[in-house]
Here is the input.
Amino acid sequence: TELRLWLAVIADDSAERPADIAPLPNLDCLIRQGDSLLDLIGQGIHAVPQEPATVSEVSMLRRAVITASGAAKQVLVRRLRSVETRALAQSLTAAEGRASGEVATCLQEAREQDLFGQVRGLDRKVRARLKDLRGRLRSLRQARRRLTRDGELPWFHYGSHFADVFARGGFDIVAGNPPWLRSEEIPPPMRALLAGRYRWWQPSAGSYGNRPDLAVAFLERSLELAAPGGIVAMLVPAKIATAGYGVTARHSLASTTTLHAVANLTEPAGAEFDATVYPMALIAGKSPPPRGHRVRTTLAANDELGVSQSRLAGGGPWILVKDRLRRALDALQSDHPALGERFVCHLGLKTGANRVFLSPPEDLEPEVLRWAVRGRDIAAFRCVPQTRLLWTHDADGRPRNELPPRCTRYLARHQAELRARRDYAGGPPWTVYRVRPAIAAYRVVWADLARQLAAAALTSQSDWSQIPLNSCYVTTTRSVLEAERLTACLNSTWLRAVARLGAVPAASGFARFNAQTIARLPLPISAFADPTLSRLAQEGRTGAPVQAELDKAMAVHLGLSGNAENALRAVVDGPARHRR
Here is the structure.
């Protein structure tokens, strides 16, 4: 770490001789490593304040170590380590006392009598709490014994290692590029600890039960570590700005901090990073925003326009655009209901074993063969499926009890794999999932991953054999006309622009048009009484050029001004965002 820091410091040094380069300050006691998110002491940075004498000694020794050298430095380092260990022991003892007190409180409440004179006892919630507390007590005692024996712990405790810093309130600057790790890649016990420790890491309304990326916990932790008025500068996944799981984090940041810059670096990132990443730079001050504060949307010092921070509050997606486009988006959202108020968006069919169900042997009985619609098969108004799907359910979506002979023999070879699927919970081993929306009579489908939103209606007699897979989303409608008109709405330039702005970015100019993104789209009620949209959807399905007429009709339904049309069209017609 020290070498990397030194190389970064001298990268822009104009000196040509090594002797002319200023040495890096002595950082031996300032650079630390360990688990920065979780420690047994917990309860926040300021929960266990250190004794003033300990704080003063840590501060004095650290300053002395920085300027010392030789044998004197080694003596000072040992003294500093000893004081830090003493501070850590004090914190562990205080944490033990706090946990023991909570155990005693739980037991005392259990001994009390209720209104009917009966002893309350331990209900399920209190039992679970006691189990957690007693487990924590055991861990704290083990940690204290290890500290006494070895003089160290396997995790990091800011309040002890930087006791002097937190006596003053925290760090002036916290900068970082935390690990980007999806929640499903985190072991379940760790997920439970994170959810219990970090408020931003808990599922929120609209997150569909999805936990945030690990970077969200680091972001919340960084604000804890910063002093009042301090600055947090982080490089985090760009999807935090729009993903459903980021609602709590976005609202807290927008309402309690001063956002100096929120810059989506996805487009230029290809030139800066070797890996395929979608980064966002976030710079926030730990203080409430002043009235009328505007947030820079680039890292350029001369970016004086930005967006009003008050518009970012509430937890909704952060669509970081200039005022003209922002006004158009605000008008659309206020003038029209969201698509999700009328339609429910579902992921398409999930097999859990594509190797078995996709491209099955050609000699299987025709009654068990359908066409699989994948995201890549969807264009505006049309689906052109290329892959056969083994279909094992009946017309009502229930798994068939028996299958024809050739199909039965084929599936028998894959019994173990089918029963080992994560979603399999009994019944016929050829069961597939999320069936009913995928086979509804009137469906509208679109790709999860695409460069722009493109929707198609599956409503005709010939469409019954087409089954959208989980690389697509699907919503059901009540009639052919409703499906056609919804499809026309989604294929308009205007809703494509809104969808693109709210979508999660992906590689090579693609974006994820997930259920949350589409459910938020403004949907004019008047469009569903317009026969012109049905005609255009039908003509579009044949390949006829309908975009200009469609956009004109939808501009009327949406009430768009000329300026709003220009602003939205620029989103769709802007430069391609391809990265390799």
Q: What stands out?
A: Residues 32-163 form one domain. The first helix runs from residue 2 to 10. The chain has a mean pLDDT of 87. Residues 377 and 386 are 7 Å apart (CA to CA).
